[in-house]
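Q: Got a minute? One more chain.
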Amino acid sequence: MTENIHGSIAVIGVGLVVLGAGLGIGKLAASAMEGIARQPEATNKIQTAMLIAAALIEGIALFGIVICIIALNS
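A: Always. Here it is, folded:
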C-alpha cells in the first residue's frame, strides 16, 4: 500500500518539477525578449545571460526529476 502512495507522490513531484521549469524558462525568455526590444544593442549580452540561466533552470529540473525517480524506485 505504501508503495502506491510513494509512487503517486513521486509522479506529482515530477509534474511539479516540469511545470516549474517550464514556467521559469518561459518567464526568462519573455524577459529577455523584452530586454532585447528595449535595447537592441545589448542583444549578445542578454542572450548569453539567458542561455546560462536556462541551462541552470534545466539542470535543477533534471536534478528534481532524478530525485523523484529515485523516490519512485525506493
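A: The mean pLDDT is 90.
Q: Perfect, thanks.
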